[in-house]
Amino acid sequence: MTVSTNKAWSKAFTQPATEFPPTELPILTGQIPPALRGTLYRNGPGRLERGGMRMGHWFDGDGAILAVNFTDAGATGLYRYVQTVGYKAEAAADKLLYGNYGMTAPGIIWNQWLKPVKNAANTSVLALPDKLLALWEGGKPHALDLQTLETWGEDDLGGLTPGCNYSAHYKQDAHTGEIFNFGVSPGLNATLNIYKSNTTGEIIQKATYQIDGVPLIHDFVLAGQYLIFFIPPVRLNLLPILLGMNSYSDALQWQPHIGTQIWVIDRENLSLVSRGETEPWFQWHFANGYVDNSGAAIIDLARYEDFSTNQYLKEVATGKTHTIAKSQFSRINLNPQTARVIAIEQLLEQHCEFPSVPQTDIGKAARYTYMSGFRSGTDISQEILNAIARFDHKTHTLTTADFGENRYPSEPVSVGDWVITVVYDGNSDCSEVWVFESDRLDQEPVCRLQLPSVIPPSFHGTWKPA
Fold it and tell me: Where are the domains of the chain?
């Protein structure tokens, strides 16, 4: 059995993060680029403990939003927890009251299924013209004020009926402004709800499909005129959930004999174009998709051989990990009219996560993919992501930003000529904002900003131009 020891990153998970009001951020090195004007929003679990009780999985933590606003006068930061109903109730009681992805609700086992699950609002953000949405795939989004991050409450976007969830992984077409998303409603067989929204976020079209069993679908692809879903062979065992014996996470079973199911949807009318099946794998995140000149759909993703990544992420919440869960940055060539996989190509051997392309390139061919990864020589069973990189699809080269020992950057967000990441420094137990030139990730950042308190490693962010 592998014995793990505390690594520097564990300090960021030990204590709940501390909110701070709008605060001018001191420049540590360099200067803010004159053309970098707008706001970075990031979302992630801010606390994994309440009243001496630990949450069961990294995905259970209460969502907290960081906003970093770049203006002519400098940069200001603001950090606030999303004031969900569950967060406020547990804060008042000073103890955990609800079940979630990786934990059952405290109390008598037999009536677990009667208790509500807390909407953690902790996974991603969608910046709309008049509000910010804190997203969590197991429920409705929470609307917040773009400037103050005041929580306004759950938002049905004009079309989310009871029982309809809204995923954290929307896709917005930068040319049309259309926003596409989905939600999975569990049952004996799950329902896949697909949504199309206008630029304000209002749902203007919806389609519903039945799926065999209850799978875990975390993300999807916008590729030209198609929305493409790869449904991994993970299924929920409902009985232990109903009996209150297992959390959702522990009741998910890896069933490779099912294979990976493929659904291709027409983005215009949300009709089903084709369905298919291919070899088993698991993915959390896709980088992007597009349709090439031959009509094939090209999809890039971080692909895992199995579902061990879920166990690794459960261990992250404890501050110690020992499970190896390595992905491969891969490319799938798919015939969208038949949902038949033509080829699967491994683009990189190194582990990667949080792959993305510039927001202007979503759904079409992009030269660069940005991602998180590991420094050379890292023991990936005991560390969390500690590097960011850019893959050049034209030259097939990877440029990596090495932050040094015990520094942990968040998912890179591409903003024009720059890449922004939030860094937890385990050496000094503090957090900073680093800005790089996008084509010089292997050089020093052009700017480093000091944050007032520790921001635990987060999941996803977005950029809203000024």
Answer: 8-465
> What does the pLDDT look like over 367-416, one tens digit per residue?
999 999 999 999 999 999 999 999 999 999 999 999 999 999 999 999 99
Burial class for 235, CB neighbours closer than 10 Å (0-12, 13-18, 19+): buried
Neighbours of 273 (CB within 10 A): 17
Q: In this structure, what is the dihedral angle of CA atoms 354, 376, 434, 283, given to the nearest 10 degrees?
A: 0
Task: Tell whether the torsion through CA atoms of 26, 28, 34 and 38 is positive or negative.
Answer: negative
Tally DSSP H helices, then E strands, for the chain: 4, 35
Neighbours of 62 (CB within 10 A): 27
Please report which helix (H) or strand (E) contains residue 85, including its range: helix 85-93
CATH 2.60.40.10 assigned to domain 8-465? The reply is: no
Q: Which amino acid is at 120?
A: A
Determine phi and psi for 51, rounding to 5 degrees. Answer: 60, 35
Q: Is residue 23 a contact partner of residue 75, using CB atoms and an 8 Å limit?
A: no
CA–CA separation, 454 and 20 (whole Å): 10
Q: Which two tokens stand for residue 438?
A: 């996008």
Give the pairing of strands 447-450 and 430-437.
antiparallel
